[in-house]
Amino acid sequence: MGETKKILIAEDDPASRELLREILDALGYEVIAACDGVEALQKIVAAQPDLVLLDIQMPILDGFAVLRQIRQDTRFATLPVMALTAYAMKEDREKALRAGFNAHISKPVNVAALRTQIEHYLSTKMSAS
Amino acid sequence: MHSQTSSYAGSQTMNEEFSVSLLAIDDDPDSLDLIRDTLAQDGLEIITAVAPQQGLELILRLHPQIVLLDLRMPQMNGIELLERIIEADPGTDVILITAHQSIESAVEAIQKGAFDYLTKPLSLERLRGLVGKLVADARDRHRALQLDRQLLDAYQYEGMIGRSPLLLEVFARIRRVAPHFRTALITGSTGTGKELVARALHRRSPVAAGPFAVCNCSAVVETLFESELFGYVKGAFTGATQDKIGLFEYAQGGTLLLDEIGDMPLAMQAKLLRVLESREIQRVGSPATRKVDVRIVAATNQDLRAMVTEKQFREDLYYRLSMVEISLPLLADRKEDLPLLERYFVERFAAQYGKPIRGLTRRAQVILARYSWPGNVRELENVLGNACMMLQGNMIDVYDLPEHLRNSPPKETAPNATEPLLSLEELDRHHAVQVLARVEGNKVRAAEVLGISRATLYRLLGNGGSRQQK
Q1: Is residue B412 part of a domain?
Q2: pTM of the entire predicted model
Q3: Total domains, chain B
Q4: Domain holding B360: CATH number?
Q5: Shortest distance, CA B247 to any CA of chain A (angstroms)
Q6: Which residue among A5, B358, B421, B447 is the one 20 to 30 A from B96 at the CA level?
Q7: Is residue A127 part of a domain?
Q8: Are B366 and A38 in contact (CB < 8 Å)?
Q9: Residue B391: which domain range?
Q10: In a domain, B414, yes or no
Q11: What domain range includes position A112?
Q12: CB-CB under 8 Å, B362 with A19
């Protein structure tokens, strides 16, 4: 088993952030939360999470801009990053995947799907490294 | 990206209306040509400079809206130059282009005021998309300045500004309650706008033409409460040299706001309750009763329910008042309204102080967005009022904000390790119940907030829906 995996969630809406935190907490992950894009970037460097969940619509830097900064940094080029969007629109999903997100999760979060995705990316990451 | 670029290339007739200028600073003349070719489009004026100093002079003279800073210099120099550009014109959107990328340097650049941070090799498509977006933003801002009044009006309801779901919920509640209420209770922390809501209830009521009176219960001396509210007759006590009406009679046919109702003494609470039930008052010193037709709005930032438990507030009065309750959200819970509020206050103070203030720099907005706002909208109003009063230039920057805001770390709510672990299904239900409580049991609204169908909500609530919450 190894140590507890760390997941960073960046989400500006306090209610959604706390719900996600509760869900991930219950799944046994260590949760680091950020309220905006800049804070997310700072915490990614400081805490070195194993996986990142980014809300697309955030103040200051949106999810796409945050992802771009992550991908531009060689240290984090392979970090699994998932997009969270409020609308379950097909275009959003495609836009997110095209931008380089590993996966797309629509809100409201389907807990089972979220869990499957997280487990998938954490295990691929482990076998890759 | 594609759609943005093309839609914006399609709006070529805009150049007459408003031209955007872009300054590219690059020490390689060939790159400047490439940038010129890549970005050339109607309505965008491109200026170039090959040396930092020349660039700065152009910025001071021409105030371009967008600056592309592409320097093959050690990176700190780029940051230094960025700082000087922001200092010279805090309203500029600067895109920094460097050869070395790390998240730390990107964060630094963005915190120092850069709009974005790109690395080489540069994707021309990305650059075009980004500049296209900035040009569109600059036009929007220009248009917004002209339409400011209209925009604000659209998101303003009785002096309250915002379009967040939480505030829209308050507006909707005022609309529903105002025509019918006899008594209402407004709860909310300090600075959330309780008096504005009270005034809105009055203005939207059938008695809008009647008087609106305010009694601040925390400012009334205990012994004078009765005469303040009900008035007195000549000779009622020493000094009562003539008849005087109280606030209830003054507000006859209108609305009386009892602010800080939690500070009303218990004895007075009993008298108030009797008036609410009988709709009659007695002036101090007179046995005659007088009919009063007054709508009562009580407001408080205290937890009346807890005060009831502690026997500091009458339970019967609490239930009487809280039949119609409007609770106001914290500013921290509706931060998406910050940009609108910022614009509203800056415009107001700019007019008040007669200064040509254009707004806040991006990094100043970052700081406001991160602060926890314990004093809510009133605190924001004070912060922006002070900044506008002291401001020398035309943009509010980081240093115009109070120090405790600049140094406040992002708030991190610690996970609660003592709470029992719940199954995911329980979590969903727990959340649904909380949302339902927040929207006062309105299942249609709760389903909307949760983004699920009503059927799903009913299923979620199921047998656990009425369960006791911890």
Answers
A1: no
A2: 0.56
A3: 4
A4: 1.10.8.60
A5: 42
A6: B358
A7: no
A8: yes
A9: 331-406
A10: no
A11: 6-121
A12: no
Q: Give chain B positions within 8 Å (CB) of A7.
A: none
CB nearest to A107's CB, from B116, B332, B451: B451
Cβ neighbours of B370 in A, within 8 Å: 35-36, 39
CA distance A11 to chain B (A): 12
Complex prediction ipTM? 0.74
Q: Which of B68, B59, B62, B15 is nearest to B39 (CA)?
A: B68
Of A33, A39, A111, the CB nearest to B424: A111
Q: Taking CB atoms and an 8 Å limit, are A74 and B431 in contact across chains? A: no
Residues B49-98 have pLDDT tens digits of: 988 888 888 888 888 889 999 866 554 477 888 888 887 777 788 998 88
In SS3 terms, chain B reads as CHHHHHHHHCCHHHHHCCCEEEEEEECCHHHHHHHHHHHCCCCEEEEEECCHHHHHHHHHHHCCCEEEEECCCCHHHHHHHHHHHHHHCCCCEEEEEECCCCHHHHHHHHHCCCCEEEECCCCHHHHHHHHHHHHHHHHHHHHHHHHHHHHHHHCEECCEECCCHHHHHHHHHHHHHCCCCCEEEEECCCCCCHHHHHHHHHHCCCCCCCCEEEEEHHHCCHHHHHHHHHEECCCCCCCCCCCEECHHHHCCCCEEEEECHHHCCHHHHHHHHHHHHHCEEECECCCCEEECCCEEEEEECCCHHHHHHCCCCCHHHHHHHCCCEEECCCHHHHHHHHHHHHHHHHHHHHHHHCCCCCEECHHHHHHHHHCCCCCHHHHHHHHHHHHHHHCCCCEECHHHCCHHHHCCCCCCCCCCCCCCCCCHHHHHHHHHHHHHHHCCCCHHHHHHHHCCCHHHHHHHHHHHCCCCCC
pLDDT digits (tens, 9 = 90+) for A45-101: 999 999 999 998 887 788 998 998 998 888 998 899 999 987 666 777 888 888 889
B428 to chain A: which residues are within 8 Å by CB? 111
Q: Which residues of A touch B333 (CB under 8 A)?
A: 14
Confirm whether B470 is domain-assigned. no
Q: Is residue A129 part of a domain?
A: no
A126 in a structural domain: no
